[in-house]
Specification:
Blueprint: H1 16-20, H2 33-52, H3 60-87, E1 89-95, E2 101-107, H4 116-142, H5 149-171, H6 177-194
Antiparallel strand pairs: 1-2
Helix pairs in contact: 2-3, 2-4, 3-5, 4-5
């Protein structure tokens, strides 16, 4: 096994072509179709396996393993690839030599990396997924399906972590999320009153 422990060079967050803005645009279409496909594929697949596994008579253990693998693939894909390509955001945890853990939130300077439709679809899927999984968690509790509760909680944690990380990237790591929410709802209230 080869390891390169002496490699201290910094790697750019984005491609040099993308950073310099020289990337050619092919119109207003989708710039990253593969990233968009996998953004939706793992997320929707995990949800469909969860919803239909008992209907098709699959064993609960194999269904749980499949769902957790799909959720893990979704978490990794959204965190490491889709966020960087579609909206120009990235977050991670860095542990110093002293053992101090630091959360790092990065955003591309300037405009959004992907097209407007890619960005909207990214944020829509990022917000809708935790909402859907939270509804499913309440149905687990109401119908007393305790065996599925750990899977639903895992889905909530993974999707919620991505949502939290990208919101922190978008609004800045120094800004409190409470302040952002208060400002947003204040602006919406003023729009309703003034219109």
């Amino acid at each position: 096994m080869l390891t390169n422990e002496n490699n201290d060079e910094d790697v750019s967050l984005f491609d040099a072509e993308e950073d310099s803005g020289k990337r050619s645009r092919k119109g207003g279409g989708v710039k990253h179709p593969v990233a968009l496909f996998f953004l939706l594929f793992f997320r929707v697949s995990a949800l469909l396996v969860y919803l239909f596994c008992e209907i098709y008579g699959a064993s609960s253990i194999s269904s749980m393993v499949c769902i957790i693998l799909l959720l893990s693939a979704d978490f990794w894909t959204v965190k490491n690839i889709s966020g960087r390509l579609l909206v120009g955001l990235r977050w991670w945890n860095q542990v110093d030599d002293d053992g101090k853990s630091t959360w790092i939130y990065e955003s591309r300077k300037g405009a959004v990396s992907g097209s407007g439709s890619e960005s909207r679809l990214f944020w829509l899927s990022l917000v809708v997924a935790p909402v859907v999984w939270s509804i499913l968690s309440f149905t687990c509790l109401i119908y007393f399906q305790i065996k599925w509760l750990p899977v639903v909680v895992m889905a909530l944690v993974l999707n919620g972590a991505n949502l939290y990380g990208y919101v922190k990237c978008k609004f800045g790591s120094k800004t409190s999320l409470k302040t952002v929410a208060t400002n947003y709802f204040g602006r919406q209230f003023l729009k309703q009153v003034l219109v």
